[in-house]
Structures are given as structure tokens and as C-alpha cells.
């Protein structure tokens, strides 16, 4: 019997034991046909993505996080925005499939590229969903997708799941090399380049001004598109005032309609505010719209209304100012800790002006996977560099995130643990 206060006593339901099912046949059924396809098999591997989404293990310092620490997220502002959104007339009615017109207008203004109107914006369910839609629209199974080397593993996972061949294009201190990009387009006949021109993940590099002006010309000459992932626009370490002086998006230098632009609200707020703007012009816009509608209909209206309430409130600017200062403090504390505990590693690290991580080059011969495993046993989680490369890596690397940390003391302790692990790895 079970009792419920105020309701009485009830007979407890008997738990049924699950029936064992032999699913071994599925290995053949799921893979046999794909192995015969001329386009080649899809690779459905979400290991890297799941690792970045997993909740930190208690007692382990998370240097592998991809979002702001809960203490840095605008919880009160989000709660207030959600409360106001729920009281809006029609908040639970079906929204337009393209998204709320007011939110599309906000994204168009926030992006700030000449000629971009609200009608060019589709509201998508976060940056990952927008990227999936863009890749489905721009590529065909078996085709090549050009990517910066290194690049965001989530993009590689989407591409491989769609049966695409990610082809790396090397970078230098000013971003992707345009001479090699032109060669890669010619050699592969790729229809798209995936690019992160601002505070690149994982290197932190921002594309140089001259290359920003020329990259659309290179793509247009190849009859190809550029997917611009502007995920870090609101993660600059100088705050809202400095954000006005950041380089304009590639979309602003594109007179051809070659750029498909993604701007997400997730990274600067909360993992659960999965709202993004997906921007394009011409026939591509209609293709993006059709694919998005077929795959998911639309983004839930209450979430769109809450996002609109947030970005329209004074709390939005206050949060951006607060998070910029917090990220800057954590970045500087990480650099200090590296110089203190890992002085041989510190000189390999570029100091980024935005984003939430550092990219470190390990000594040749060091096994990054082994170091990550030893570090985890020592109580600190880090990201090995290999998953960030579409093909062979030029050497061992680490991505060390400082965004998902509680305070500066935790950063120092985490680097101390990492230093101790490196002597064992």
C-alpha cells in the first residue's frame, strides 16, 4: 500500500520486469543498405556532442564545458521574461512557421548587415538546428563540405550523419587561408564552406578584415555558399560597447547572396534558450524554410515570446555587460594559472578577445586522450584536440574552457590538477 497525504491509501502497482528482446538483427538491418549506397555510409556518432552536453560529475572541475556556468546565466531575467511571455495574448497559439515577426525584426537589427530585412530571417530552434537545416539545404549525400581546420565537432557530426565528406582547409593567424580555400573548392567541387569568422571554436581566431572582404568572392567564383556560424558575437570580453566595434559579419560583405548566416541566443544565455536566427536571401531562403518546416514545423511560440521579452528588456544589456566581465576575469585567471602551473604550455596559448575557451598545443608525442583520462581521474575534465580536426591532426592539442567554472579559485585549482595529471600522462 502507498499513502498520499490528504488523498488516502492506495494499492501499490506491481512493477513489471522488462522483457529481454534480441535486437542483434538490427546491426545488419541498419547498416547493410548504407554500405551499398554509392554516396557512402552515414556516420552517426554523437559521442563528442554528448560529451559537451553531459552534466559535470560532482567534484570534477569542468574545463570541457560549452555553456556559461549556472552562476553566469541570466536566470532571473529569463524567469521574468518567461512569465511575461506566458501572459501575452495568444502565447500558446500556433506561430508563423517563419517565426514571430517581432523576433525576426530584432534579429535583423542585431545582425546589422546592409540590406537584411526581417523577411530574410527564419527563427530556428538553436544554432545546432539551424546548422543542420543549412547543411541539408546546401549539400547532397556523398558531397564534400569544406571546413576550417580545426573546427567545431558538432558541425563535423552533422555533416557525417548526412553522408557528407568534411574536407579541412588550413588556417593561419588571420583565419582560413583563401588561397587554399580556392584550391579546395576546385579540387572537391564542394557546394559550401562552414566557417566561424569571429572567436573561432576552438582556436579563438577572428578572420582578418581583408579576408572578410574577399571570402564571398572566392565562394561566388566557385558557385558555392558560406555557412557563417556567428555563435560568439555576444561573447566578446569587452561588453556591449565593444561589441559595436567588432568586425561586421561576413553577411555584410556579401553582395552575391552567398552567405547563410546563423546567430544564436543560446551561448550567451542558457542551454535551454534554443532560439536562433537563420538568414539567407534568394531561392536558398525558400529552401531553408521548406526543410525547417518539414523537419520540425516551427519553434514553440512561448519560447519565441520569452526570447523576445528577454532581448527587449534592460536586463539584456545588463547581462551582456556582466557576462563579458566574468568571461574576461576567467580568461585572465586561466592564463595566470597556466603560467603558474604549466609554464611550458602557456606560451602556446593564444589570448582570445572573446569566446569561452583556450586552445593549447601540446608537445609532440604527448597522448592527448591519455592526458584527458588521467586528468579526469585527477578531478578536471578537458577536451582533447583530435575531434576538432576533420582529417589528420598536425599535432596534439587541448581545448580548455573557462566559462563553466564557478569562480577564479576553481580555475586555479583545475589547472593545478591538470599540471599534476600531465606529469603522469
Structure description:
The chain is an alpha/beta fold and about 425 residues long. It contains 14 helices and 15 strands. α5 (about 125-140) crosses α10 (about 285-295). The radius of gyration is 23 Å and the shape is globular. The protein starts with a strand and ends with a helix. The model has no long low-confidence stretch (mean pLDDT about 90).
Key terms for this structure?
alpha/beta, globular, 8-stranded mixed β-sheet, 15 strands, 3-stranded antiparallel β-sheet, 425 residues, 14 helices
Poorly predicted tracts of residues: none
Alpha plus pi helix count? 14
Q: Could you estimate the helical fraction of the residues in percent? A: 25-40%
Report the span from N to C terminus: 55 Å
**For the report, how would you describe the main beta sheet?**
8 strands, mixed
Structural class by SSE content: alpha/beta
Number of strands: 15
What strand line-up does the widest sheet have? 4-11-10-9-8-5-6-7
| Shape annotation | globular
The overall pLDDT average reads: 88
Helix and strand string, N-terminal first? EEHHEHHEHEHEEHEHEHEEHHHEHEEEH
Short summary:
The protein is an alpha/beta fold. The chain has 14 helices and 15 strands.
Strand-helix topology:
Blueprint: E1 2-4, E2 8-10, H1 26-36, H2 47-53, E3 61-62, H3 75-86, H4 101-111, E4 121-124, H5 127-138, E5 144-149, H6 153-161, E6 165-172, E7 175-176, H7 178-188, E8 192-195, H8 209-221, E9 225-229, H9 239-243, E10 259-264, E11 276-279, H10 283-296, H11 301-311, H12 314-341, E12 357-361, H13 368-377, E13 380-381, E14 383-384, E15 397-401, H14 408-422
Helix pairs in contact: 3-11, 5-6, 5-10, 7-8, 12-14, 13-14
Amino acid at each position: 500500500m502507498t499513502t498520499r497525504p490528504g488523498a488516502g491509501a492506495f494499492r501499490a502497482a506491481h512493477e513489471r520486469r522488462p522483457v529481454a528482446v534480441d535486437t542483434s538483427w538490427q546491426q545488419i538491418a541498419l547498416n547493410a543498405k548504407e554500405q551499398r549506397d554509392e554516396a557512402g555510409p552515414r556516420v552517426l556518432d554523437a559521442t563528442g556532442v554528448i560529451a559537451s552536453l553531459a552534466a559535470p560529475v560532482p567534484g570534477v572541475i569542468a574545463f570541457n564545458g560549452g555553456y556559461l556556468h549556472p552562476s553566469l546565466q541570466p536566470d532571473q531575467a529569463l524567469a521574468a521574461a518567461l512569465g511575461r511571455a506566458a501572459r501575452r495574448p495568444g502565447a500558446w497559439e500556433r506561430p508563423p512557421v517563419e517565426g514571430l515577426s517581432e523576433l525576426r525584426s530584432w534579429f535583423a537589427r542585431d545582425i546589422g548587415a546592409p540590406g537584411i530585412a526581417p523577411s530574410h530571417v527564419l527563427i530556428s530552434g538553436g544554432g545546432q538546428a539551424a546548422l543542420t537545416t543549412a547543411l541539408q539545404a546546401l549539400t547532397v549525400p556523398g558531397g564534400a563540405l569544406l571546413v576550417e581546420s580545426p573546427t567545431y565537432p558538432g558541425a563535423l557530426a552533422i555533416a557525417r550523419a548526412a553522408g557528407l565528406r568534411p574536407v579541412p582547409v588550413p588556417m593561419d593567424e588571420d583565419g582560413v587561408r583563401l588561397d587554399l580555400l580556392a584550391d579546395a573548392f576546385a579540387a572537391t567541387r564542394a557546394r559550401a564552406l562552414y566557417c566561424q569568422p569571429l572567436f573561432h571554436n576552438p582556436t579563438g581566431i577572428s578572420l582578418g578584415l581583408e579576408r572578410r572582404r574577399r571570402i564571398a568572392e572566392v565562394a561566388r567564383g566557385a558557385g558555392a555558399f558560406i555557412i557563417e556560424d556567428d555563435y560568439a558575437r555576444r561573447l566578446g570580453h569587452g561588453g556591449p560597447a565593444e561589441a559595436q566595434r567588432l568586425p561586421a559579419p561576413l553577411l555584410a560583405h556579401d553582395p552575391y547572396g552567398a552567405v547563410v548566416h546563423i546567430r544564436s541566443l543560446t551561448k550567451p544565455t542558457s542551454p535551454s534558450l534554443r532560439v536562433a536566427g537563420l538568414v539567407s536571401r534568394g531561392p536558398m531562403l525558400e529552401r531553408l524554410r521548406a526543410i525547417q518546416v518539414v523537419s520540425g514545423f516551427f519553434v514553440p511560440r512561448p519560447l519565441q515570446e520569452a526570447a523576445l521579452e528577454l532581448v527587449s528588456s534592460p536586463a539584456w544589456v545588463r547581462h551582456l555587460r556582466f557576462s563579458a566581465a566574468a568571461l574576461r576575469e576567467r580568461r585572465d585567471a586561466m592564463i595566470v594559472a597556466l603560467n603558474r602551473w604549466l609554464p611550458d604550455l602557456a606560451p602556446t596559448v593564444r589570448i582570445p578577445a572573446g569566446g569561452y575557451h583556450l586552445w593549447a598545443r601540446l608537445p609532440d608525442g604527448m597522448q592527448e586522450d591519455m592526458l584527458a583520462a588521467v586528468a579526469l581521474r585527477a578531478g578536471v575534465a578537458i577536451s582533447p584536440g583530435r575531434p576538432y580536426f576533420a582529417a589528420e591532426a598536425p599535432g596534439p592539442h587541448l581545448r580548455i574552457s573557462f566559462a563553466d567554472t564557478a569562480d577564479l579559485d576553481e580555475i586555479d585549482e583545475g589547472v593545478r590538477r591538470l599540471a599534476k595529471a600531465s606529469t603522469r600522462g
